[in-house]
Amino acid sequence: MFLTQIFSNLSLWASFPAFLLYYLFYSSFEMNDLEGYVTDAETILTEYDFIVIGAGSAGAVVANRLTEVSNWNVLLLEAGGDEGIVADIPGAVHLLQRTSMDWQYKTMEQTEACLAFNDNKSNWPRGNILGGSSVLSYMLYVRGNKRDYDDWEAKGNIGWSYDDVLPYFIKSEDNRNPYIAANTKYHGTGGYLTVQEPAWTTPLAAAFVEAGVEMGYESNDGNAAKQTGFMLAQATNRRGRRCSTAKAFLRPIRNRQNLHISMHSHVHKIIIDPVTKQATAVRFEKKGQIYQVNAKKEIIVSAGSVNSPQLLMLSGVGPADHLQSFGIPVIEDLPVGDNLQDHIALGGMVFTVNKPFSAIEGQYYAFPALLNYTMNSAGPLASLLGCEALAWVNTKYADPSSGE
Ligand SMILES: Cc1cc2nc3c(=O)[nH]c(=O)nc-3n(C[C@H](O)[C@H](O)[C@H](O)COP(=O)(O)OP(=O)(O)OC[C@H]3O[C@@H](n4cnc5c(N)ncnc54)[C@H](O)[C@@H]3O)c2cc1C
Ligand SMILES: *[C@@H]1O[C@H](CO)[C@@H](O)[C@H](O)[C@H]1NC(C)=O
Ligand SMILES: *[C@@H]1O[C@H](CO)[C@@H](O)[C@H](O)[C@H]1NC(C)=O
């Protein structure tokens, strides 16, 4: 009996260091996990060097890069909360809209579009979550046409030509498809944002590109020298999961002491001095409490293409008559919110194929697919849900001299 007691005491004491080690290991793993979730700021200071409004595609990157300078401190304010696991699943992307992750906007009644929709209005999804619309997006990695950037530069936006922005695309990118990444003039590896073809495609993806070649187009990387052509989709995903800008740019740096990330923080107003026209502070609401925080250097408005203009208008910057109709004192009369352009997404092109290859719903939401995704991050749920390949073609309206 005596002996057994010693043994049981021994095993208790012997297991204690093991627990301690395990705990230390686990917590350091947690601390260093590049994909560990961001913690919501517990304290908010009265003043920061920079305040970034909106932690979406733009805000997450800006906050990351600013806090590389260790003697600047930054407050990143986001109206929404953090991503859950559903947002991680590429094949579940359409389930995210019209949930709390979405601002759930609708357009006004349209007279020349949306005529087949209820009340001639379209849903207008915008991310209301850390990572912003990069959490709702279909993840297609498309930089856009060179000439758009060059046009912005030509209109006076210094630093926005394609040659100016290209180094930043490359710096951010971690392209995991060697045949694309080999073109180092246009692509990068080792950056924060993981880009690759999805883990699963139907045979239609390659067939689509082949069909383009048969018609005389090039099979081409549309994010390199020339956009025109057909390609397999590249997407912002990592190991079969979504790589939102929150996952890419915020989670790995969440322990930086000079960055406070405050979620559920809805900015109501930017305080602008009516005389000097200088923006000095930001007013926001978090859990029913109103905060006003000063910015020593700059306030960055990255609340998205709908909310940024709205916030400017609420702050007194916008069309004077519109602001006055809401009783908002006008600080600067400017056409804020004008010239907004959005693309339509057409879900209605339906055709039959004579092999069982297409993205049929039963294949996605069936038990084998769920199991495969859970175990291997593979199978149909790792796909881009039907958007598998891309083509850019010049129509008869295109400027024939462009060739890009
Ligand atoms: C359904 C869908 C599919 C898409 N698919 C693709 C795709 O496949 N490929 C592609 O390249 N692009 C795609 N896009 C577009 C792309 O996601 C956006 O262009 C991009 O995310 C916009 O970035 P942003 O930083 O301007 O705004 P957002 O990413 O929308 O970020 C704005 C952030 O500000 C926050 N915010 C807003 N107002 C306030 C406030 N008052 N106070 C505090 N925070 C606020 C929002 O909650 C949000 O998090 C898609 C978009 C949608 C909606
Ligand atoms: C939608 O627009 C069409 C064409 O302008 C119009 O005839 C129709 O009445 C509109 N429907 C609704 C519900 O407003
Ligand atoms: C799981 O997906 C992979 C490819 O993504 C596929 O090769 C494999 O056959 C699938 N397994 C099952 C059980 O469906």
Structural class: alpha/beta
Q: Write out the strand line-up for the largest beta sheet, numbering strands in chain order.
A: 10-2-1-13-12-11
Instruction: Determine and state the CATH class of the largest domain.
Output: Alpha Beta
Shape: globular
CATH architecture of the largest domain, by name, is 3-Layer(bba) Sandwich
How many domains, in number, for the residues?
A: 3
Question: Helix amount, in percent?
Answer: 25-40%
Mean pLDDT: 91
SS element count, helices: 11
Can you walk through the features of this model?
The chain has 404 residues and is of the alpha/beta class. It folds into three domains: 212 residues, FAD/NAD(P)-binding domain (3-Layer(bba) Sandwich); 56 residues, Arc Repressor Mutant (Orthogonal Bundle); 91 residues, no CATH class. Strands 10-2-1-13-12-11 form a six-stranded mixed sheet. A hairpin with a 2-residue loop joins strand 12 and strand 13. The termini are far apart. The relative contact order is 0.16. The N terminus is likely disordered. The structure holds flavin-adenine dinucleotide and 2-acetamido-2-deoxy-beta-D-glucopyranose (NAG) (2 copies). The site of one 2-acetamido-2-deoxy-beta-D-glucopyranose has 5 residues, from loops. The site of flavin-adenine dinucleotide has 33 residues, from helix 2, strand 11 and helix 8. Belongs to the GMC oxidoreductase family. This is Glucose-methanol-choline oxidoreductase N-terminal domain-containing protein. Keywords: Membrane, Transmembrane, Transmembrane helix.
